[in-house]
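Protein Record: Sequence and Backbone Structure Tokens
======================================================
Scope: a single protein chain, as residues and as a discrete description of its fold.
Tokens: labelled as protein backbone structure tokens, with as many entries as the chain has residues.
Position: the record begins directly beneath this header, with no further notes in between.
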Amino acid sequence: MGVRLYDSRMTHDFPDDADDGPGYDPDRPSKSQVKREMHALLDLGRELIELSPERLKQLPLAERLYEAIRLAQRTPSREGLRRQVHYVGKLMRDAPADEIRAQLDEWKNGSRKQTAALHHLEARRDKLLRDDDALTALLSEYPQADSQRLRTMIREGRKELLANTTLRPGQEPQRKHYRALFQALRQLQDPDAQP
């Protein structure tokens, strides 16, 4: 038996649109794309299983999907959990995945935004305790603010800071007015915030 060499006569003329066989639909996603989407839904289902029941109730979930997620949360065996996760992934096909992802993203990034806002308020409070001009800037930004109350809190906060510099080891620093000033700033920024 010999080795067959390439022969130019053996070339085949394939049409350029070889995929256009019977049943081919150019608008239909490929099998790989469908598989990626299913894995993404499975991952989203896993994220939902890790949420608290209170958070789950805030999402637009069908009752059947909600119950499947709750069952997965209560399933102790590894194999049972694996099967339940796949069932949740299957039910996710009919769920509004984009809305759910948007809400999850808001919860994750919203907390970052809240943390950044709190850090901004802390920096502003510290500036108010250091600099008299900071109060003028604050009052121009929030003309409805009670200037007398803010001045009192700043004065008391400065006294607290001064007293805290002379503490002996083991003594707790006083922070009553320091915290009250922070809460007042928070109320100014968001009137609906809890004091």
Q: What stands out?
A: Residues 97-130 form the longest helix (34 residues). Residues 26 and 189 are 54 Å apart (CA to CA). The two ends are 91 Å apart (CA to CA).
